[in-house]
């Protein structure tokens, strides 16, 4: 039971989730769907993107119990019929979120380097943010509904993969809970994120 780690993870996760969801809204708007703007999601206000269960409570519990890390922000609604490119546009909207987290990981790596001397505590916080941002990107790329990666199954326009998506969508949340708690999926994601974080931090010295 590591309370300090839970607080760090939850605050960082909320910080990282906000631009993630904003990126979805921004890309959908760029592709012609004004649904996110009308619903107040085209903003960097953290309160517009928080899901209290997925952004605060569950990440805190999984961090405390050491069962990997599971969480999400408030989903951004999009209308595929309004997106330029249709399902291809949907894929672009889906990838915008994880893409923003990779960019954030790089920016946090720069911050960690700049703060290493004058503010070591901030540098450590930013370095952990590099890891968590990469973890969030990888987690969201899993092809399990409602995660971003599942939208890529639809974008293939393969009848088989569309059916796979429809079947997974029936119990996707339960599948995620089981996968994160009863398998080594969380550990694998952590290792990949750690290796990526080390690489980024080494690049910036």
**How is the biggest beta sheet arranged?**
none
Helix count equals 9
Whole-number tally of structural domains: 1
Head-to-tail CA distance between termini: 33 Å
β-strand number? 0
What is the typical, i.e. mean, pLDDT?
91
Would you give an account of this structure?
The model has no long low-confidence stretch (mean pLDDT 91). The longest helix is centred in the middle third of the chain and has 29 residues, at 87-115. The protein has helices at 3-30, 35-38, 52-65, 87-115, 120-140, 148-155, 159-169, 172-182, 185-203. The chain has 205 residues and is mainly α. The protein has one domain (3-203).
Can you tag this structure with a few keywords?
single chain, 205 residues, mainly alpha, 9 helices
Summarize the structure.
With 205 residues, this protein is an all-alpha fold. It has nine helices and no strands.
